[in-house]
Write a structure and sequence with these properties.
The protein has 352 residues and is mainly alpha-helical. It contains 14 helices and no strands.
């Protein structure tokens, strides 16, 4: 019976992975349909090494800012958090998501929890709150895109209006939910758990874990100074992402094919971010499809240069995360070895 249950779980996970890669290849097909793929590669062959280097530097800075924001959020839990461990965990999260989408959030929490001796529920709670902050940041970044676009972006991209509407509804509902949790913490847990137990003990247990996790995550974000710093760093993260998009134009001399500016980079960055809502490894497929569509259909760039832009920027990001993940695990384990602490791997962090 147990064996049958395990097989069922394995088949379910395998099917999920299969669907993910099916979606990825479908988006890649539609992204490059009718485009001279080898022509795009020939453009990439003449890429500027200087701007690739600059792109990588900004890429690393943007994720260092993420680790800095996470440190502020977890400061109330542990004051002397290692910046190396925080940065390494952030990179590992993205690196794992480049292989299996969504799994990265779990592993970055597991690694930091092991490295710093922080409970899993506290780490997971901080990640949920952090992701909510990201949703708010990119929702407002999309609104800025609408305002700076020289035309009607909502008409040009017919799915953008409904996506933003759903996004803002989610923000409002989740914010109210968080306020209720903060205000009626003890009473809420007791009432919700008792009510849910009438329907399912299993569901009640999961709900209790979720509410407890959120409470621990919210407890990390306290104080006007900390909240102000979190907002400021969140703004800097979005700006760094937009700057990376802008530098990406110069890697392949896109200025020779049309007018490029920071406003264009901002729009490409924010709208292509919607692709992350669809679970594909490292945004492969979804990022290409949205970026190429924006550059060709909205900004009238040549399909080949647009494809080259999507390919080179995603390739640098994807390989950057994978390479940095391997390096960070090696570096941190070397540091831990010198301190006579146990090494951690993808298997050891899964153990309680």
């Amino acid at each position: 019976m147990i064996s049958g249950s395990k097989n069922k779980g394995y088949l379910s996970k395998s099917f999920g992975v299969f669907i993910t890669f099916l979606i990825t290849f479908a988006f890649l097909y539609f992204a490059f349909k009718g485009i001279d793929f080898f022509g795009a590669l020939s453009i990439i062959a003449h890429s500027s090494l200087y701007y690739i280097f600059l792109y990588v530097i900004i890429f690393l800075i943007s994720h260092y800012l993420r680790s800095l924001r996470w440190r502020i959020m977890l400061k109330s839990v542990k004051k002397d958090l290692s910046e190396v461990n925080l940065f390494g965990s952030v990179i590992i999260g993205y690196g794992v998501s480049c292989v299996i989408p969504r799994l990265g959030e779990l592993f970055r929490g597991l690694f930091l929890g092991k490295w710093e001796g922080i409970s899993r529920s506290t780490i997971l709670g901080s990640i949920i709150v952090e992701r909510f902050i990201d949703v708010i940041s990119f929702a407002f970044a999309a609104v800025i895109s609408i305002l700076i676009f020289p035309g009607d972006l909502l008409t040009e991209i017919n799915w953008l209006r409904i996506s933003l509407l759903i996004g803002f509804i989610f923000i409002v509902v989740f914010t109210l939910f968080l306020i209720i949790i903060i205000k009626y913490e003890e009473h809420l847990i007791h009432t919700f758990i008792n009510l849910s137990k009438k329907f399912s003990e299993k569901f009640a247990s999961k709900l209790e874990k979720l509410i407890t996790t959120l409470i621990e995550g919210l407890a990390c974000v306290k104080g006007v100074k900390n909240i102000s710093l979190i907002i400021l760093i969140s703004l800097l993260i979005v700006l760094a992402y937009a700057l990376n998009s802008y530098v990406g134009f110069y890697i392949i001399d896109m200025g020779d094919y049309g007018k490029i500016n920071f406003g264009l980079a901002w729009v490409v960055m924010t709208i292509s971010a919607f692709g992350s809502l669809i679970p594909t490894p490292g945004g492969v497929g979804t990022y290409h499809a949205i970026s190429i569509y924006l550059l060709v259909q909205i900004y009238n760039f040549d399909p080949q240069i647009s494809a080259a832009y999507a390919l080179i920027t995603n390739f640098i990001t994807y390989t950057g995360f994978i390479t940095a993940t391997v390096l960070m695990i090696i570096i941190i384990n070397k540091i831990r070895e010198k301190r006579k602490l146990p090494k951690e791997t993808f298997l050891t962090v899964l153990k309680s």
